[in-house]
UniProtKB/TrEMBL annotation:
<dbReference type="GO" id="GO:0006434">
    <property type="term" value="P:seryl-tRNA aminoacylation"/>
</dbReference>
<dbReference type="GO" id="GO:0004828">
    <property type="term" value="F:serine-tRNA ligase activity"/>
</dbReference>
<dbReference type="GO" id="GO:0005524">
    <property type="term" value="F:ATP binding"/>
</dbReference>
<dbReference type="InterPro" id="IPR010978">
    <property type="entry name" value="tRNA-bd_arm"/>
</dbReference>
<dbReference type="InterPro" id="IPR045864">
    <property type="entry name" value="aa-tRNA-synth_II/BPL/LPL"/>
</dbReference>
<protein>
    <submittedName>
        <fullName>Uncharacterized protein</fullName>
    </submittedName>
</protein>
<dbReference type="InterPro" id="IPR002317">
    <property type="entry name" value="Ser-tRNA-ligase_type_1"/>
</dbReference>
Amino acid sequence: MKGKLEPSVRQDLIEEGKSLKDVISTLEQDLLILTDKLQIEAQIIPNITHPDAPIGGEENSIVRKRVGKPREFEFTAKDHLQLGKKLDLFDFDSAAEVSGAKFYYLKNEAVLLEMALINWAISEVSKKRFIPLITPEIVRSSVVEVWFQPRGKNTQVYSIEDSDQCLIGTAEIPVGGIHMDSILPDSALPLKYVAYSHCFERSRCCRQCNQGTLSCTPVQQG
């Protein structure tokens, strides 16, 4: 082919190839910018709610079912923190020295209870053909973006410096990433998973805690 082309024609084609390479490089950069903008816009689209879900505040909530009846005490009931400290089940003070505020040690029967509950819960749902998983606790920020905002001043996510990785805030994140960028055939469905992991989130009080209607202690590792 080269031997059949005039030198001037060949040189023109070489120059055209270089020009096309520059054009492609520019278009690829434009595509990245547009893709990022599309992702940002897509992330502000709210989830589709069930048509029966009430619209408005808690005053519009509908009680579907009550199981049991709240116990009434003839004395001032203690909350879980008061009981746990009295029974030597929690140690917030030592954890604060070791890790910082809003961390804790579980102790004694609380450890056995937590492990027993985890084992019982996973065993029960496994009977219904859920696949049990223990997930990674560090994932790429692109995976976290499906659930949270991994960067910025208001993020609740712990990011790993100089990397594109984050600590997970819930096991749903790595579970949701198992089949990302995949097309699943109908024959493979349904896929049901139950997962266990630690969860890391910059602590914040829920609205009920802030209103004083719920006793809770926000923690950074669960």
